[in-house]
Design brief:
By secondary structure, the protein is α/β, with parallel strands linked by helices. Helix content is 32%, strand content 16%. It has nine helices and eight strands. Strands 1-8-7-6-5-4-3-2 form an eight-stranded parallel sheet. Helix 8 crosses helix 9. The chain is globular. It starts with 18 loop residues before the first strand and ends with a helix.
Length: 281
């Protein structure tokens, strides 16, 4: 999909040639009410507030991992956001967490076909930017999982696919070369530096740079539910990320930045701070 290259409003630095999209991983959370959202906000008004008050220009839709996107929901999301606001959408859970365990079964293609069909309202307005495949820690670098990646990209070859690894075994130059040859976007993820979790590696493998910030909660493996993402990035940490983002923006066409440390709205606060840092010369 094409973005408007003359939209100067989205560009925050004369040295940056990319369009930068910044937002959070989701927008509708109960613990954001009274912390970052107004106390009296209605659930139906959250996305409009997200886009118009905080002026985020993208959101990562994670609920599609759990349930299909209905046409009614898709149209509602579109109507509550400006025409230059974009969505990245997470692939269904079975595709990234189940089907690869038994090989690329027919269920994979059936599920993906229905998933892609559900995106038609977004597609008609050119607002689906990237599909996100977040694989679990158990998805490790083996010949059969590499083949699964290839088949996944082949099936959705007409779209931009971003892949996030959780296991350190994927830190491999051959993997990055393969991703580059297949035009798969490497997700640059920041998470706790624990055990064999995939580390933060600002490597770009396509025309898109995709950053996801999960937080660095040391209790990652033991925290319950959203507590895993209970982390507030310091300004120094954000300044370090800003340097990598600006560097990426000099070579990529589009840069996506999403904060997933959503506990009590910390993702919003960190996103707004990062935007200020990126706007500084």
């Amino acid at each position: 999909f094409h973005h408007r290259r003359d939209d100067r409003r989205r560009r925050w630095s004369v040295e940056v040639s990319a369009v930068i999209y910044l937002g959070t991983s989701g927008f509708s959370f109960k613990d954001w009410v009274g912390t970052v959202y107004p106390q009296d906000i209605r659930r139906s008004g959250m996305l409009r507030y997200y886009a118009l008050e905080w002026k985020f220009n993208a959101v990562e839709l994670n609920f599609t991992y759990y349930a299909p996107l209905s046409a009614r929901t898709a149209v509602s999301l579109l109507r509550k956001t400006p025409s230059d606001f974009v969505f990245t959408v997470k692939l269904p859970g079975p595709v990234t967490h189940e089907f690869w365990k038994t090989g690329n079964s027919p269920n994979t293609n059936d599920t993906l076909t229905k998933f892609l069909e559900s995106l038609k309202p977004f597609d008609q307005e050119g607002r689906t930017k990237v599909l996100l495949a977040q694989f679990p820690w158990s998805f490790q670098n083996r010949p059969e999982t590499v083949e699964y990646l290839k088949s996944l990209k082949t099936f959705i070859r007409s779209r931009d696919l971003a892949v996030e690894f959780r296991h350190r075994s994927w830190v491999d130059e051959k993997v990055y070369e393969l991703m580059g040859s297949l035009h798969i976007t490497h997700v640059i993820a920041d998470e706790p530096m624990l055990d064999a979790l995939y580390p933060y590696i600002p490597r770009i493998t396509s025309k898109i740079a995709y950053f996801r910030f999960h937080g660095r909660n040391p209790n990652w493996f033991h925290a319950f539910g959203s507590e895993r993402y209970n982390y507030d990035y310091s300004e120094e940490e954000l300044k370090s990320f800003a340097k990598d983002i600006k560097k990426a923006a000099r070579s990529a066409e589009d840069v996506f930045i999403f904060f997933n440390n959503c506990f009590n709205g910390k993702a919003v606060l960190n996103g707004l701070t990062l935007r200020k840092l990126l706007q500084e010369s």
